User: Which sequence fits this backbone?
């Protein structure tokens, strides 16, 4: 079976968050499991220079979208015989300093850029010598593709078009633009702009187009699959997701333990494992020195790595730590995002030198060192489709403190759920008081080294490898599809 993934991010080539990790790891693991896998993603700025494995193909094309002609070219990397990574070149759309926006906000033509990506995906699926049986799209950026496939099957003679699956990594991003721009941006007729099509509260939504037209829908954890059918988490899409509940599945992401490991990790100055934490203690001491914290083994180190956004609870995280100032702890934050939250984090670090450290940048190597040094990992997300950092934390022996939502609900075990195999601390209300209460629980665990070891052991030996998720996706690709 041949699967074509369409994604706006692909680790290690491009990444702003978990989407890149997921598509990179899922495609590699699917190929290792015997599927033929192609991934299509944009050729962003600098990729040709940084990745010498990329080669231009002689496949150049012109697409007519609306009244415009758009030219592109595919670049290729071939990591293994049955894994092909293709990158679509279009300088005007993708040769930009960052993926989605700059200091002024999102790029105004994002809908146009990723509709072009969907069109390139359809072209590829239709003309590859070994056409895919499934197109597996990711998030709103791939939302047009299921509709394009439906349209071409009905009106453009693509009778053996592949089946389509759309994975929701984050429902809050919906690919919205004005209805008037529909034909120009998508190249499709306005007849799709209705309640059961791409119209969404008076605008057009690429995500909704995909959710209405994909044969199968998935999201990245079972609990989030349930949550998004409710008004609290559905971002306005809960009605249609409830309608499509039979086709909506939750599959938890896995961890790429080849990259995220504590034994043979080029980013770590030392190694350690579940039975031997001496290396972890040395990494903690080195990290404390590196980022200007007091070098003290007897202070619990809390870490937070995330996009600094309200989604991630970054706005009440500092208040919670302020509420437990009477206790001894250290905090390290690595993140970028909302400028006001960035400033607040910097200010907080300035107030408590030696105790709080902040690094406002994207730094993958530092993320590994921080996870390895951490005693606790704080993840107070308001919503979390899957979340990867709590999975990395479990493996790295940093006890996760998480809000009980989405993938955090599915992957962390609170001691109230199992006193035999607890792995972390869960709290419910997304506010400073509830998080402060959870921090006090963490500090109590810290003072009881036997209990801390109990949590760490179960977290570090929990298995979130990709094997299980790959099998679950494969079961979906085998489903019979009724297209009437
Ligand atoms: P999301 O995709 O919503 O941002 P996830 O937890 O699923 O959240 O994935 C976040 C990924 O991005 C993780 O691999 C995390 O380590 C990484 N990450 C986020 N911010 C930074 C940063 N400032 N520096 C390094 N890595 C980061």
Assistant:
């Amino acid at each position: 079976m041949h699967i074509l993934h369409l994604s706006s991010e692909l680790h290690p080539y491009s990444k702003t968050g978990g989407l890149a990790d997921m598509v990179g790891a899922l495609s590699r693991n699917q190929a290792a499991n015997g599927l033929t896998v192609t991934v299509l993603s944009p050729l962003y700025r600098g990729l040709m220079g940084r990745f010498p494995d990329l080669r231009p193909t002689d496949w150049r094309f012109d697409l007519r979208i609306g009244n415009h002609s758009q030219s592109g070219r595919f670049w290729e990397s071939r990591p293994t015989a049955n894994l092909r990574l293709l990158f679509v070149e279009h300088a005007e759309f993708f040769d930009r300093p960052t993926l989605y926006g700059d200091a002024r906000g999102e790029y105004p033509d994002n809908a146009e850029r990723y509709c072009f990506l969907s069109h390139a995906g359809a072209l590829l699926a239709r003309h590859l010598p070994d056409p895919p049986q499934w197109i597996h799209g990711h998030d709103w950026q791939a939302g047009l593709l299921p509709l394009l496939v439906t349209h071409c099957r009905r009106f453009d003679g693509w009778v053996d078009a592949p089946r389509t699956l759309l994975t929701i990594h984050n429902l809050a991003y919906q690919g919205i633009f004005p209805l008037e721009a529909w034909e120009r941006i998508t190249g499709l007729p306005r007849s799709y702009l209705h309640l059961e099509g791409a119209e969404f509260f008076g605008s057009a939504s690429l995500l909704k187009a995909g959710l209405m037209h994909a044969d199968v829908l998935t999201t990245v954890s079972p609990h989030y699959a349930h949550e998004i059918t409710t008004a609290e988490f559905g971002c306005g899409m809960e009605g249609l997701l409830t309608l499509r509940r039979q086709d909506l599945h939750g599959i938890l992401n896995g961890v790429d333990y080849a990259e995220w490991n504590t034994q043979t990790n080029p980013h770590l100055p030392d190694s350690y494992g579940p039975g031997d934490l001496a290396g972890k203690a040395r990494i903690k001491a080195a990290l404390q020195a590196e980022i200007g914290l007091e070098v003290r083994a007897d202070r619990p180190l809390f870490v937070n790595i995330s996009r600094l956004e309200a989604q991630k609870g970054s706005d009440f995280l500092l208040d919670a730590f302020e509420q437990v100032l009477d206790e001894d702890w250290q905090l390290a934050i690595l993140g970028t995002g909302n400028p006001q939250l960035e400033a607040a984090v910097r200010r907080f670090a300035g107030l408590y030198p030696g105790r709080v450290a902040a690094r406002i940048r994207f730094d993958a190597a530092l993320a590994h060192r921080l996870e390895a040094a951490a005693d606790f990992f704080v993840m107070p997300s308001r919503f979390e489709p899957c979340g990867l950092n709590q999975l990395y934390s479990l493996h790295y022996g940093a006890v996760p403190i998480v809000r009980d939502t989405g993938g955090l609900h599915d992957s962390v075990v609170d001691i109230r759920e199992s006193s035999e195999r607890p792995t972390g601390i869960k709290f419910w209300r997304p506010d400073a008081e509830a998080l402060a209460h959870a921090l006090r629980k963490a500090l109590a665990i810290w003072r009881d080294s036997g209990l801390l070891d109990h949590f760490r052991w179960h977290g570090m030996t929990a298995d979130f490898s990709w094997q299980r998720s790959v099998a679950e996706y494969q079961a979906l690709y085998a489903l019979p599809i009724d297209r009437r």
Summary: The chain has a mean pLDDT of 97. DSSP finds 18 helices and 20 strands in the chain.
